[in-house]
Amino acid sequence: MALLKSDFDKDQPSDSPDGRWIAYTSVETDRWEIYVATFPGFNQKRLVSNAGGRQPLWCKDGKELFYLSLDGKLIRSGHTDALDNRDRRPSRVLSAAHPKRPSSKSILRDTR
Alpha-carbon distance 71 to 82, whole Å? Predict the structure, then answer.
C-alpha cells in the first residue's frame, strides 16, 4: 500500500465515508500532523492540521474532519473537499478533560 511506502512514519488512517479520501497522521514536519490524501491512489495529499494532530475521524457526511491537537483539544477542519486549497483554518471544538489520552471517538460521543 502506497501509504506505508515513505521515508516518514505514518499512522492512524481514517477513510472518508465515500471512500475517496484517507486522513492519516505523519511526522513529515518533525511532529505528528494530520494529512488527507486521495484514495486509493495517494497521488494527491494536503496538510490539514496547523499545530500538530492525531486520531483523525471523518464526520458521517464526509464534509468535515475532526482530530485531536497535541495538547488534547478536539479540532474541526472545515474542508468540504479534502483537497480544497482555500484557507479554512482548523477551529477548536472543545478541550479534552481526560487524564489519559482520550480517543476521538469517545469525545465525539460525549458531545452529542
Answer: 24
Coil, strand or helix at 2: helix
Mean pLDDT of all residues in 21-49: 89
- Alpha-carbon distance of 44 to 99, in angstroms, equals 37
DSSP 21-34: EEEEEE-TTSS-EE
Tell me if the pTM is above 0.85. no
What's the pLDDT at 32?
94
CATH of 2-110, one of 2.30.170.40, 2.40.50.140, 1.10.600.10, 2.120.10.30: 2.120.10.30
Quick one: which of 38, 78, 85 has its CA closest to 58? 78
**Coil, helix or strand for 79?**
coil
